[in-house]
Specification:
By secondary structure, the protein is of the alpha+beta class. The chain folds into two domains: about 1-60, no CATH class; about 60-120. Helices cover about 50% and strands about 15% of the residues. It contains three helices and three strands, in the order E-E-E-H-H-H. Strand 1 and strand 2 form a beta hairpin.
Length: about 120
């Protein structure tokens, strides 16, 4: 588990839900929550996020680029995770259209009667 740099003067406080609040003090001495972790410990991602928001070490452009690249990476990972499901569905659809597998369509007299009664012109 990574540690927070001492120069940041941040402390951790446990929460009732098992997560941690990373707390600092502003110039007036009031406490503020810099970040709430996703689990019971500090991760590399938490340190990266805090470093990106540190006004002493990063510029506004770096801050914006950090979050924009995080969003792009999330989208890429989400697309990759969905690719297998899309490929499988497309494969089933192509096989059905090419009749390489047995396909069945349902039909019943009751369905036809209900359709006729619903769409019958008076």
């Amino acid at each position: 588990m990574p540690d927070l740099p001492k120069s940041w003067k941040l402390e951790t406080k446990p929460r009732p839900d098992g997560k941690l609040d990373i707390v600092g003090k502003d110039v007036t001495g009031a406490e503020y929550v810099a970040r709430t972790t996703e689990n019971s410990g500090i991760t590399e991602e938490d340190v990266k996020i805090l470093a990106a928001g540190n006004r002493e070490t990063s510029t506004p452009d770096q801050f914006v680029e950090f979050y924009a690249s995080s969003r792009r990476n999330y989208k890429r990972q989400h697309e990759r995770s969905q690719a297998d499901a899309y490929d499988e569905a497309a494969d089933r659809a192509v096989r059905a259209m090419m009749h390489t597998e047995k396909t069945t369509l349902g039909y019943s007299r009751r369905y036809a009667a209900n359709y006729d009664s619903a769409f019958e012109e008076n």
